[in-house]
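Quick question about two entries, pasted in order.
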Amino acid sequence: MGVELVQIATTPPRVPRPEWLKVRVPGGENYSELKRLMRGLRLHTVCESARCPNVAECWSHRTATFMILGELCTRRCGFCAVPKGKPRGGLDWTEPERVAEAAKEMGLNYVVVTSVDRDDLPHGGSRLFAKTIEALRRRIAGCKVEVLIPDFRGSEAALDIVVSARPDVLNHNIETVPRLYGVARRGSRYERSLELLRRSHQIAPEIPTKSGLMVGLGETFEEIVEVLGDLAQVGVEIVTIGQYLRPSGDQLPVARFYTPEEFLALQQQGRRWGIRHVESGPLVRSSYHAHEQASAIGQM
């Protein structure tokens, strides 16, 4: 009598997304209008490139996070959907004016500017951050500017260039716990990111520093608490904590979904460490409601 062999699948089952993480599909008049504006001015947003789950809400309210230095990132972070590759050419010095034009047309008075990593450029493209801050302030009276910068490979000169332009908030995301940097943030180092935040606070303590991390990549609750302690120690005043959502099958899978109660517990832990404002929730992202976070520490 023969024996029938049955092949058992070894692929782990997909973790179902809980109800509190449901978001609406992008659409509507404002969404279409902003899409036309960005394409017409040849601009990129992290909302689109990183496939942010809040794009429908933010764009319906005519807010967006501008992404400068092109759309190709020179690093290959395991969680990120921003296109990777080898950018061609140097800096586009007309980009700051186009960002300012878009922000003015959108009626913004608080603008968030981020970028891809450009390790191929001198000082990581930091001069374009400075030019963008200057253009926004020149074109929009009373404009507040938050910059979400890369680590510039630890270049103190690059950080000095950005800080000298006097952003209202300087943000650099720590992203995850040290143990997961090898898979989640290839090309980056936890200690280097902490040092950037420490140095920014040291040379310009009047400019609040901000950082963000995502959960659900396989870290433990205790590891997140330790990261919050590290951020507090280097003077970070605003921290955002959100659920990692896999943008596509090309990125790291979600290890687990945190509950709203766990996000509240992380917020309380951050406050215990002395961080002035902790925004913690399933759909929280670094630039999500950024103006409200700045207002919470008196920057508006």
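Here is the second entry:
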Amino acid sequence: MEENVSKKPRGREIFSKYKKIISLFVAYYKLFPLKKRIKLFVKHRNSRGKIGLGIRYALLKSIAKSCGDNVSVFEGVFLLNPQNLSVGNNVSIQPLCYIECGNDENGGLVIEDDVSIAHGVTVMTTTHTYEDESLPIKDQPVVSKKVVIKNNVWIGAKATILAGNTVNSGSIVGAAAVVTKDVPENSIVAGVPAKVIKTRNTEHSV
């Protein structure tokens, strides 16, 4: 006997349903100066439910260097300098993440397609220098280094990606891992600092 199981609509289906309405909001927000849009984005950081998701998405699409379809930024995400962000399609950023997008031409953050970022993840695109022994570390220059998260990546809860690193396609960063160097393609990394613990068998991936 077959069971009647009702399936909830997936994010992509919901996005397709409201895409035209969202596009109107994007066009409306683009009438405001960039600084005003960023302030509105911060104001709606904790707005709840589908309305909050929609407002953040429309604002982000009007602010970021580029922003694809079906991008979900959940409640409580600190997204700093979103004007330096390039993000692809089908990306989710779960609650309470702290994500820097750089502060000059050398920095910036690129998130490609089909990326899942779990709750509490930190992405750093800046770092303190410390070479000048005559200055306290807190007074030394801060430099920006670009971070790239490529296609089909899963970043586990409370993981940290440090400035200047690339997480290559098909990879998984384990929960609470600290990425201090590039993550190879189709690999699973874990630990502090993060190391490859397994290579994915992509022939049998679904």
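Reply: The longest strand covers residues 195-199. The two ends are 27 Å apart (CA to CA). Hope that helps.
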